[in-house]
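Progress against Task 2.4 (sequence-to-structure conversion) is shown through the following example record, which the project officer requested during the mid-term review.
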Amino acid sequence: MAGPGGARTPQRLLLLLLGLIHVASSIFIVKNGNETSCILANFSATFFMNYSTKSGLVNTTFELPQNASVLNSSSCGTENVSNPILVIGFGEGHTLTMNFTRSTKSYQVQLLRFTFNLSDASFFHNASTRSEEMSVESKTDIQADIDKKYRCISGNQITMSNVTVTLSDVTIQAYLSNNSFSKEETRCSQDVPSPTPGPTTRPTAAPLPTPTRPPMPETPSVSKYNVSDTNGTVCLLASMGLQLNITYEKKDNTSVRRIININPNETKAHGNCSSQVAVLELDTDNSILVFHFGMNATTSKFFLQAIYLNKTFPDAKKPTFEAFNNSLKELQASVGNSYKCNAEENVQVTDSFSLNIFRVWVQAFKVEGDKFGSVEECLLDENNMLIPIAVGGALAGLVLIVLIAYLIGRKRSHAGYQTI
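Structure tokens generated for the chain above:
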């Protein structure tokens, strides 16, 4: 029997009210017939997916709503017969399901399933497919020791066909020995820092293959983009030149690095906005590049929170290249102001993909009169200004020293001759 879902812990509620986190998390509880908890889960989830409309394939990003709740189809399972299952429902027929299994020493979320209803226009606007129900699923790496909670602050991306679910600030425990989270925990690999490698002695051998690096292309052209909300009000202004820096494995098992400029003349731009999310999508040259801007309510700042890339390479071992990062903190400025940087900025999205941004000028959310607000310069530009100032100051000081030395020398030369 499922216990009440969607209740918030006091600490999480306080953080939400203070605006210290962007995506709200919820605690979900599954209880057995004796009202004893067998599953506790506290996390936030962001969904990124594409679906078909009459005008073509579109992308959408949404978060697990705060009113999501545990459904009665959840269960504590029966020993040797069935396993515990957590089913979370929201919207018009959408469910996120976690199937648990255990061994003698550990338990895990063996399967994550997302079932969605494309007829729900609040999530899927103008969807051409009106199927009652569609499902995608994937295995996960969510695993913890028995009698310990699973803890993962970092975003954990789980890709299922056309859907990527990012679970953040996760605390999960199944097969509970009491009605609360254990004090002991198993941390996810994403939270554990990589050990610093010590000096090693390598045997003499052929050098490791390095990615083929093509010549650098010219600086990409700067183009202007804007996004409006459902009322037609501009909520995102952007002017920038974009360059993709991608490394992938070819069919012959060699690694290649591609540097590709985004051509504004061959790019279609569109997007959508809500009160705290602004999305810009660029479709060009067999690729989809998506920018996801978020807002920090406490500091009243907007920032680039996520980047998604989907691009096709015919010569790649895996023709479809995908990269996604939902934990960025780039291009920050106060809401109502704009962020500007003339210097080239590099955003590392994943190990195999980075984005070079040239002469960026961007403003999200509070856009007045469809024009950029007061400018907040980037640190790179401020540092670049210090160099000519320092050089100018040094030259001025040198000129002053020479002038003083000249005046002193001139005075001394006159002092050697007196009138008789």
